[in-house]
Structures are given as C-alpha cells and as structure tokens.
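S1.2 Input.
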Amino acid sequence: MSEEKRAGTIIIFSTTYLPFLGGAETAVKGITNKIDDFDFILFTSRFNKKLERAEKIDNVYVYRLGFGNLLDKYLLPFAIPLKFFKLKKDIKGPIIFWGMMISFASIAAFFLKLIYPKIPFLLTVQEGDSEEHIKYARAGLIAFFWKLLIRRADRIQVISEFLKDLCINFGAKAPVEVIPNGVDFLKFTSPDPQKTLILRGRLGIRANDRVIISVSRLSYKNGIDVLIRAFSFLKIPAKLLIVGSGEDAKKLSRLAYDLRVDGRVFFEESKHDNVPNYLRLANVFVRPSRSEGLGTSFLESMAAGVPIIATSVGGIKDFLKDNETGLAVRIDDPRDIAEKIELFFSDENLQKRLQLNGRKLVKEKYEWSNIALRMKHIFKELIFSNA
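S1.3 Output.
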C-alpha cells in the first residue's frame, strides 16, 4: 500500500473490472481517478488466464481471483474473504467495504460484514433491470440477494431516483443517496477528426445524410428491436448506426433484413474509446429502452452535442425533460419513435434547443470531478462514523 498518509483504505468488491468495461467499471475508474485521499484495493474475477492476478491500474490495486474462466464469478463470495484475510494485516488505518452492484462480489462483502461488523459497508446500486425482473426472475433469487445486501449496508448510493425508490421498497434501513454515474466531458466534446473521417468513408456516410445513432448493448431491455421497427415507418431518408454488441446481435440483424431496412441499418462493434468518433457522425441519438438504471450512453451523447430521443423509464427520467433536454417516446411504440424522429429533423430550433440544454445539463450535473467529490464526502463520513 501507499507509504503516504491516507484517510483510510477502501476495499472495492466488483464482479468484473478492467479491461472489461461497463457501467460499474466506468464508475470505479471515474471516481478513483479523481480521489487521492484513500488507498483503493479491488477484488474481482479473473475470467481470462492472460490477465495479471495482481496489478495496479491508476489509483487502484487490483486482485483478480479464480482460474481464468467464466466460472470465476461464482467463486468470488468465498475467494474474496480468503484473500482479504491474507491482506488485512498489511492494511493500515480505517477500512471501508464498497460493494459495486448486487453482485457475486458484493455477496463477499456481506460475508465479511458479518465477520467485521464495525467496518462500514457502502453499497452502490446501478442495476438497469426492471422492478418486475428483479422481483420475479430466477425464481425470486435475485430479489433475495437484493434484500440481503440492501438491508445489511450501512450506506447506499444509487445512480437514479428510480433506484432509490427501489431500494426503499426492498427494505433499506440505511440512508440512500442519489449520486449518478458521470461522463468524461472533455473526451466526448473532443473527438478525433481523422478517425471520424475514416469512419465516415468506411460507412459511406455523406456530410448531408441524416444519421440516427444508438450506442447500446444489444439486449432485449434496450429496445433496439423497436428502433429497427421504427425505421420501417420512417417517411424520410435516414441511416441508422447501431454501435454495440450483445446476445441479440444476430436476431436484430435478421429483423432488419426481414423488414427490408438492412440497407439503411449499420451494425458496428467498437471499443468505448471510439464512441465519441461515432457520435460525431450522428444528428440524433435514439434508444427506446424498456428499463434503465440511469443510461450513461444518453449522457455521453448529450455531452457530445447529439440530442436524444428516449423512453421516460427508470433513471432516464432524471435527465429527460420532454422538449427541453430530449424527446420522449412511448415504450414499445415504433410509430411514435418514427414520428418523433421526423419531428426532430423538421425543426431546426428544436434541434438547437435540445443540443444546448442537453450539453449544459451534463456539464453541470454529470462530470466525473463533481461525482467524485460527492463520493469522497461519503467515504469520509463513513470513516469518521467508525472512528
């Protein structure tokens, strides 16, 4: 650990971490990179034998546990406590347990909390599933772990008002605070012009083309199938650029073919670092999600100056104000989506208003530096409460 004087050590429990990149991983990276007052130790699954078992990434000491395959996550509730016992003697000063999401890793935090009841347990909830899925999927097992972890936490941080209400409904006894995930504002306002030019040439997108983009995991909850169906109702010429990968990729490609819109729909897999360059190609971002914990991709698009069209579900409600910061559409309604896209392209004043308001909102409320300051305040409160 660091020889410099620190306020304490935060033990992070995350089922996955870099180089794998999702909302939880982005949040850990965005927050820890902005905080120098604490040492950070992170336990995660190894998943791949090529990955180092232990390394320091930015401000975080990362320990990857398991055999290097997909089964590793199931071992975490047992492997993490064993690793923590070995490391604890070398950790100086106060400790906080920080569980990322209702996950296998956070179950390990629950077990350690039973053994060390005086160590504060902070739980971050940023799941994107619907309330119905959480309550009833997998024969109620997901709901069981939600109740188990939420009721044991000393403090709960959620990324949206929707998740705050959900935690309270699941019996939260600890204070619940809304601190959203953030956006690297500079990254999304400064794309690489050369890479954008290359993408434009490869995809055959001309300067005057109307381009609709959706950056998304290709899964049922994100409603990309509804967006593709909307293209069959669209009365104006436009191209749809879908950036992402996922279990529904083949199904969605087949849907575009069956609807005879495949000539206007482009599927692209890409690393997150290249997303700003794709956004630079687009006029509007559309994702008709069926459920959403927050929706960081929407915020990234707004930061890039690309207005959004979205369903007002879950955490999206926190930043989507219809006709102010975006356009709202109904769930599972492709005709409504088509109409809103046509409205967007028909009204230049609307485009400018959505663009300016969206970027302003992200700048003021969702930059990582502001998010990290609020998280640091929680860390220090938990440290002092246990002093």
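S1.4 Remarks. The chain has two domains: 8-182+367-385, 185-365.
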